[in-house]
Design goal:
151 residues, mainly alpha, elongated
Length: 151
């Protein structure tokens, strides 16, 4: 391939797809660029070889094999859209499962009681701390944790 900037236009030039202005610029460029000239010659030789190939009739079995291979190699746009949605949703579901499992394991293995967390986060912690001085049902560690005071 040539690094001159015209190499990407050689295929369309060879196929007759360029507008007249670009076609003229390529034709002026080719005599002075051996890389582009060699590439164009390779394209022409390949086209000649492919033109020489003759195809006979294919059997229905061969046609089915070809269709199956093409179908296997392509994916419908709707399938791609489903996959684009499925991957983030599966990640979200896995994250929720992990977080929920950790929370359940924490509660089952003697973690904090959720009722204690609700009292502490409700803004009434001062009332609980003051009331705990007279309520012997609350453990000392809870009183220190909620009110920062010792009984």
């Amino acid at each position: 391939m040539s690094a001159c900037g015209f190499d990407n236009l050689l295929g369309p030039y060879h196929d007759g797809e360029l507008d007249p202005l670009r076609r003229d610029r390529i034709e002026q460029h080719l005599p002075g660029c051996p890389d582009c000239s060699r590439h164009l010659a390779e394209l022409r030789a390949l086209t000649d070889r492919l033109s020489a190939v003759t195809l006979g009739q294919i059997t229905p079995m061969e046609k089915a094999i070809i269709q199956q291979a093409v179908h296997k190699g392509t994916m419908d746009w709707a399938d791609r859209a489903v996959l684009r949605m499925a991957i983030p949703l599966a990640s979200l579901a896995a994250s929720l499962l992990i977080v929920t499992s950790i929370g359940l394991a924490d509660n089952m293995l003697g973690g904090r009681n959720t009722a204690d967390q609700n009292v502490a986060s409700s803004g009434d912690w001062q009332q609980v701390a003051v009331a705990s001085h007279t309520d012997s049902r609350l453990p000392d560690w809870m009183v220190r944790g909620l009110g920062g005071q010792t009984p």
